[in-house]
Design brief:
The protein has helices at residues 2-22, 37-44, 48-61, 63-72, 77-98, 105-125; strands at residues 30-32, 102-104. By secondary structure, it is mainly alpha-helical.
Length: 126
Amino acid sequence: MKKIRKILFSVYIICVLWITLIDREWSSPHAMLIPFWEFANVIKGVERGFYIKQILGNLIMLMPLGLILPTLKKVNMKQIFLIALLFSAGIETVQFITGRGLMEFDDVFNNTVGAVVGYKIYSKLR
């Protein structure tokens, strides 16, 4: 069973990297480091549907990290938080360097929160 979880986790990581980096066109670097600008747009009603999807997508994207990783390795919530933060910040940094996406503070925040929520769900189910 652990082997299946390892394979599942590996496929999940590859999918995240595919969605965030590989399946994107090279461009010039872009960054939006103003915290919570997507939330502000939702509140203001600026392209509300688009930004709600962005926020939810980023919350959901790293949720499996918090659900699956604890089944492979003994980790606590603080470790999940740090792993998700570093993984997400790494993706955003590569997006900036390669121009394969918009480097955003909001993405790092939402991804990290999603992983922590995934860990909380794992903890409750366990």
